[in-house]
TrEMBL record:
One of its GO terms (molecular function) is ATP binding. This is 2-aminoethylphosphonate ABC transporter ATP-binding protein. Residues 8-238 form the ABC transporter domain. InterPro entries: AAA+_ATPase, ABC_SmlMolc_Importer, ABC_transporter-like_ATP-bd, ABC_transporter-like_CS, AminoethylPonate_ABC_PhnT2, Mo/tungstate-bd_C_term_dom, P-loop_NTPase, Transp-assoc_OB_typ2. Pfam families: ABC_tran, TOBE_2. Keywords: ATP-binding, Cell inner membrane, Cell membrane, Membrane, Nucleotide-binding, Translocase, Transport.
Length: 358
């Protein structure tokens, strides 16, 4: 995507609802053919941003361009997009074919060209043979596919998705995420998706825009956001994180309660917080034979079996009651949690996995 041109450019968009600021001078560029997820808690402005793109809301200030064309004040029908709502918004009195054809021929005239396009869309979303069924005869996942086919039927250059899988059960949602991502790549259609589900964003997006209180907090690939979060909000919202308040000893040494920890990052602030992902904490049944940096003894206060993994809740010695969470293999977890005595283990907080935030 790095070489793709910018397709959507959002510049200093501002939207106020009374005293509530939904969008606060937000700027964002989306490249041609990429899938971008707007991710954030409820009320952060992500749906307002999508509605401004769709022309269903108008911003108070700022500019939106699409393929170099200013669409800020254009009506929805002049913006060349398809949209899939959370509710799917299928017409219950129309068949699958009629629902898909509606965007092509609102007057329900199913001429040969329209019929051919409907058949192509049904094949694309894997619903060939369901053309004469009504929405009530379909499962939630099938209804979502019909709504997607309807959105794609006019061959829009932009696809807008408003939490399209939130109404589905977990198993169906996981399968459709994969199918939708494959379809988006096959069509190379520029896509903007709203979600509050960080796993969904991580699985599907080329880039994620993390929003909070109407502002863009960080924009990057899932790997960038997970490994190099801009601040504590992003680190806590994208995945799990352990937080350790520290005092700087020197450039690459931090004091956490009674424990001195080496870090790779150069510490700038005199105080702040270190964070480490649960999977980056190394857990040992017994102390390693060789000298190991940042090695601690910890009590296992609780464990949760997750199939392939265990989630361990740990209380390291010398940290005055601070708690850590670690993810370990099922095999190691079995051995540790089946110990007869109060389970203890050695843990290492690798210097390269500790990140500081003020």
């Amino acid at each position: 995507m790095a070489s793709s041109p910018t397709f959507i450019s959002i510049d200093s968009l501002h939207k106020q609802f009374g005293h509530f600021t939904a969008l606060n001078q937000l700027s964002l560029d989306i490249k041609a053919g990429e899938l971008v997820c707007l991710l954030g808690p409820s009320g952060c402005g992500k749906t307002t941003l999508l509605r401004c793109l769709a022309g269903l809301e108008h911003s108070d200030a700022g500019k939106i361009t699409m393929a170099g064309r200013d669409i800020t004040r254009l009506p929805p029908q002049q913006r060349d997009y398809g949209i899939l709502f959370q509710s799917y918004a299928l017409f219950p009195n129309l068949t699958v074919s009629q629902n898909i054809a509606y965007g092509l021929s609102p007057k329900k005239r199913l001429n040969t060209a329209v019929q051919r396009r409907v058949a192509e869309m049904l094949d694309l979303v894997g619903l060939t043979g369901s053309d004469q069924k009504y929405p009530a005869q379909l499962s939630g996942g099938q209804q979502q596919r019909v709504a997607l086919a309807r959105a794609l039927a006019p061959s829009p250059s932009l696809l807008l998705l408003d939490e399209p899988m939130s109404a589905l059960d977990a198993q169906v949602r996981e399968r459709l995420r994969h199918e939708l991502r494959l379809l988006q790549r096959k069509l190379a259609i520029t896509t903007l998706m709203v979600t509050h589900d960080q796993e969904e964003a991580m699985v599907m997006a080329d880039r994620i825009a993390v929003m909070h209180q109407g502002q863009l907090i960080q924009y990057g690939t899932p790997q960038e956001l997970y490994r190099q979060p801009a601040n504590a909000f992003v680190a806590g919202f994208i995945g799990e994180a352990n937080w350790l308040p520290y005092t700087k000893q020197h450039a690459q040494q931090a004091q956490v309660e009674q424990i001195s920890l080496a870090v790779k990052q150069t510490l700038v602030e005199s105080q702040g917080q270190l964070f480490i992902r649960p999977e980056n904490i190394r857990v040992f049944e017994r102390a390693p034979d060789i000298a190991t940096e940042n090695l601690l003894l910890a009590h296992i206060t609780d464990s949760v079996f997750l199939g392939r993994h265990y989630r361990l809740h740990l209380r390291p010695d010398g940290m005055n009651g601070l708690n850590l969470t670690a993810l370990i293999s099922a095999e190691l977890g079995d051995r540790l949690t089946h110990a007869h005595a109060a389970p203890r283990c050695h843990i290492q907080l690798p210097a390269e996995a500790l990140y500081a935030h003020a």
